[in-house]
Amino acid sequence: MSDILVHIELTRSGHVGAAARGLLAAAARLGTPIALTVSDVPLATEAVARLGELGAVRVHAVTSDATQAILATPLVDALGAAVAAYAPAAVLLSGSADGREAAGRLAVRAGGVLLADVVDVAAHDGQIIAEHSVFGGSFTVHAVADGGLPIITVRQGAIDEQAPAAIPELLKADMPAPPGNQAAVLSFSPAPETSARPELRGAATVVSGGRGIGSEANFALVEQLADALGGAVGASRAAVDAGYIAQTAQVGQTGVTVAPQLYIALGISGAIQHRAGMQSSKTIVAINQDEDAPIFEVADLGIVGDVFTVVPQVIELLKNRT
């Protein structure tokens, strides 16, 4: 089987990032997953074991003092060296800000073909096929790389699988700081964790509220259902503009694009700008009093009713199940 190179993002504490599970599962469909990490300290034994649990057959751990001081270049250097060493059939990266930047720069260096914001991948007749969800999720497009190495960024949360566990071979490499002028990191301020809920962009379950929730105080109902399901909290732009919740929770064309396994829309009408950010979710449930609300056009399950009557009953059922 061909090697598939997967960039694994690490947290600042050195733990394997949440996107690794889906990326390695996608790689296992295409060939032999090779996990590439780049960090300023040697990769911890626990992280290597975790990557094995997630299906990495080989872990290529690059250590570079420059990773905390120089933007992107050390990662692109490490990816370029790994591509030269393994000649992979494809490179997979998370669709995060860092992943997107590294993928674009790697495509230029390696003469590859960039396939961005992919929601699924498959192998057929020796080709790697990337699936995109476009025009707000209204169309599905399949693309192949013609004449170059496929470099693929995968939308976070789009692939909810886990590859069979493996006992990974660990390869270590040191990389010197890149020469010349580089964009440098002069300082940074860690963003404090304000919630124990999963991050909205990569969450498997998202519960969102719209203007139909009525007030900031009522938005607690959205949060209660999210907590009962272990999900993240989102919102429509109308709810954000009304001051019910911070803009960071906004899902849609001018907010975060999500692709969870379950998306629950509460009191959301379903304007096209909102649907553009969530329509590729695997299962969509909508609760709204307006039976003509556009959100029902994309819902797998629609409930016409008052969210303040329906949702408390759902929460109670979930509590009874546990």
Structure overview:
This protein has 322 residues and is α/β, with parallel strands linked by helices. It has two domains: 3-174, 3-Layer(aba) Sandwich (Rossmann fold), CATH 3.40.50; 205-320, TPP-binding domain (Rossmann fold). The protein is built from eight helices and 14 strands. The chain has a nine-stranded mixed β-sheet, sandwiched between helices. Strand 5 (113-124) and strand 6 form a beta hairpin. Helix 3 (73-86) packs across helix 4 and helix 5 (220-229) packs parallel to helix 8 (307-321). The longest helix is centred in the C-terminal third of the chain and has 15 residues, at 307-321. Keywords: Electron transport, FAD, Flavoprotein, Transport.
Defining key terms:
single chain; 322 residues; alpha/beta; Rossmann fold; 2 domains; five-stranded parallel β-sheet; 8 helices; 14 strands
Helix and strand composition category: alpha/beta
* Helix-strand pattern: EHEHEHEHEEEEEEHEHEHEEH
Helical run tally: 8
Query: What share of residues is helical?
Result: 25-40%
Strand content: 25-35%
CATH class of the largest domain: Alpha Beta
Strand order of the largest sheet: 7-6-5-8-4-1-2-3-9
- Euclidean distance between termini CA atoms: 43 Å
Task: Provide the fold topology.
Layout: E1 3-7, H1 20-30, E2 32-39, H2 45-53, E3 58-63, H3 73-86, E4 90-94, H4 97-110, E5 113-124, E6 127-134, E7 139-144, E8 150-154, E9 169-174, E10 205-209, H5 220-229, E11 232-235, H6 237-241, E12 262-266, H7 272-275, E13 283-288, E14 301-304, H8 307-321
Parallel strand pairs: 1-2, 1-4, 2-3, 3-9, 4-8, 5-8, 10-11, 10-12, 12-13, 13-14
Antiparallel strand pairs: 5-6, 6-7
Keywords: Electron transport, FAD, Flavoprotein, Transport
Function: The electron transfer flavoprotein serves as a specific electron acceptor for other dehydrogenases. It transfers the electrons to the main respiratory chain via ETF-ubiquinone oxidoreductase (ETF dehydrogenase).
Organism: Paeniglutamicibacter cryotolerans
